[in-house]
Design a protein that fits this description.
- The protein is mainly α.
- The protein has a single domain, classed as Arc Repressor Mutant, subunit A, CATH 1.10.10.
- The chain has 4 helices and 4 strands.
- A hairpin with a 4-residue loop joins strand 1 and strand 2.
- Helix 1 packs across helix 2.
- The longest helix has 19 residues.
- It is globular.
- The N and C termini lie far apart (36 Å).
- The model has no long low-confidence stretch (mean pLDDT 84).
Length: 128
C-alpha cells in the first residue's frame, strides 16, 4: 500500500485536506479557498449550541465576503458551482444546506486526518 504523509499546522488542515481531494473534486484554487472557509464555519457552527443554520445562509455569506473581499454576486456563482458538484447538499431532515459529509475531514486525536482513496479499475471497452 502506498502511504504519503505530510505534516501541517492545525490551522491549515481543512485547506490541505481539500487540496489532497482535489484530484477527484476538480476545484479551482479559489473554490478550494472558499470551501476551506466553509469548512472552518461548519466546524465553528457544529460546536455552537442551538439550531444548525444553512451553510450558505446570510450570516456565513457575509463572513466569507468580509474575509475574502469577494463580491456578493461572485460568491453566489461559486456556491452554485459547489452545489452542482454536490459539495453543498440539501439536508432534508433539517431543511438546510450542508457540506457533503464525504468532504468533511475527521481529525483523529487532534493529530491525524486519514484519507482512504479507492480507484476501481475497469477493463476498457473494446471498440469494433
Amino acid at each position: 500500500m502506498n502511504k504519503f504523509i505530510k505534516t501541517v499546522p492545525l490551522s491549515s488542515v481543512n485547506y490541505e485536506f481539500l487540496r489532497s481531494l482535489n484530484g477527484l473534486l476538480g476545484l479551482t484554487d479559489r473554490e478550494i479557498d472558499l470551501l476551506s472557509i466553509f469548512l472552518d464555519l461548519e466546524n465553528r457552527d457544529s460546536k455552537a449550541k442551538g439550531q444548525r443554520k444553512s451553510i450558505d445562509g446570510t450570516a456565513n455569506r457575509k463572513e466569507i465576503m468580509r474575509i475574502t473581499t469577494i463580491t456578493k454576486d461572485n460568491l453566489s456563482r461559486y456556491i452554485k458551482r459547489l452545489k452542482a458538484k454536490r459539495i453543498i447538499v440539501r439536508d432534508y431532515k433539517e431543511d438546510i444546506n450542508v457540506l457533503n459529509k464525504a468532504i468533511l475531514p475527521v481529525i483523529i486525536g487532534n493529530k491525524v486526518v486519514q484519507i482512504t482513496m479507492i480507484l476501481k479499475v475497469k477493463e476498457d471497452e473494446i471498440q469494433n
